[in-house]
């Protein structure tokens, strides 16, 4: 078995073919094209590049880009951070209120003795600190 001849490959690429589109009923020629393999390859490659370019342009220059996962507006990450901080502070406030309600329930049930809260002073985190000094 020998290797294919280089000239035969070049000849196959440059061999001309005729593409004819006929009317089925009258057999009238509608379109006639003279093609070779190289021109078909170049034409299909060009069409592929144009379609890919149009798709990239459509996604890149229209609001469709916001549907790509991981892509978002520039300010959204900053908004997410502020919302996270707000959610954390609301969660802390809810925990403190729930502790307050639990202590009131315990006092009403009689499981613990009521404390004199007029002498206690609360810091901003909600924890009890030393009693306030009376003047």
How would you describe this protein?
By secondary structure, the chain is of the alpha+beta class. The protein has two domains: 62 residues, no CATH class; 37 residues. Helix content is 50%, strand content 14%. It contains three helices and four strands. A two-stranded antiparallel ribbon has the order 1-2. The chain has a two-stranded antiparallel ribbon with strand order 3-4. A hairpin with a 5-residue loop joins strand 3 and strand 4. The longest helix has 34 residues. The radius of gyration is 40 Å and the shape is rod-shaped. The mean pLDDT is 83.
The average pLDDT is: 83
Helix content: 40-55%
The main β sheet shows up as: 2 strands, antiparallel
Q: Would you count the extended β strands for me? A: 4
Strand pairing plus helix content: what structural class? Answer: alpha+beta
The domain tally reads 2
The low-confidence parts are none
H/E element string?
A: HEEHHEE
Q: What is the terminal-to-terminal distance?
A: 113 Å
How much of the sequence is in beta strands? 5-15%
Structural shape? rod-shaped
Radius of gyration using CA atoms only: 40 Å
Contiguous helical run count = 3
Strand order of the largest sheet: 1-2
Tags for this entry?
135 residues, alpha+beta, 2 domains, two-stranded antiparallel sheet, two-stranded antiparallel ribbon, 3 helices, 50% helix, 14% strand, rod-shaped
Topology of this protein?
Blueprint: H1 6-14, E1 16-22, E2 29-36, H2 37-60, H3 76-109, E3 121-122, E4 128-129
Antiparallel strand pairs: 1-2, 3-4
């Amino acid at each position: 078995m020998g290797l294919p001849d280089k000239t035969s490959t070049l000849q196959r690429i440059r061999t001309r073919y005729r593409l004819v589109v006929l009317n089925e009923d009258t057999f009238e020629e509608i379109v006639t094209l003279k093609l070779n393999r190289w021109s078909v390859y170049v034409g299909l490659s060009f069409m592929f590049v144009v379609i890919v370019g149009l798709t990239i342009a459509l996604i890149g220059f229209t609001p469709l880009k916001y549907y790509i996962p991981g892509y978002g507006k520039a300010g959204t990450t900053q908004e997410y951070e502020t919302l996270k901080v707000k959610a954390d502070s609301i969660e802390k406030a809810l925990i403190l209120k729930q502790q307050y309600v639990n202590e009131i329930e315990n006092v009403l049930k009689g499981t613990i003795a009521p404390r004199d809260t007029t002498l206690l002073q609360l810091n901003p985190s909600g924890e009890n600190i030393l009693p306030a000094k009376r003047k």
